[in-house]
Amino acid sequence: MKKQVQNFNKSDLAIYLSRKFSSLNDEAIIEGIDLILQEIINTVALDNRVEIRGFGSFSKKTIRPRKYINPKTKEESYLGETSIMHFKASKKLLHAHD
């Protein structure tokens, strides 16, 4: 049986950090989160891997070129090679709620 994964988004992270660091105001926390996320995105875009110990790693995954058919017009088209960001959670994060 697969374990239910709890979602944790940016606003949840901001709330958690504002409780943990009550001396910081909400704007500073949100600005810090945005800065860190933008740096992760920029680093991965340059084909580098970002690893945060105890949290997980971010890397770039390339999807091969492929053909698709428009269901409405039945027209065939081709998508070129695309890249997406891939996240792999650490074992520590996966077993945090066991």
TrEMBL record:
This is DNA-binding protein HU. Histone-like DNA-binding protein which is capable of wrapping DNA to stabilize it, and thus to prevent its denaturation under extreme environmental conditions. It comes from SAR86 cluster bacterium SAR86E. PANTHER family: DNA-BINDING PROTEIN HU, DNA-BINDING PROTEIN HU-BETA. Gene3D superfamilies: IHF-like DNA-binding proteins. The keyword DNA-binding applies. One of its GO terms (cellular component) is cytosol. Keywords: DNA condensation, DNA-binding.
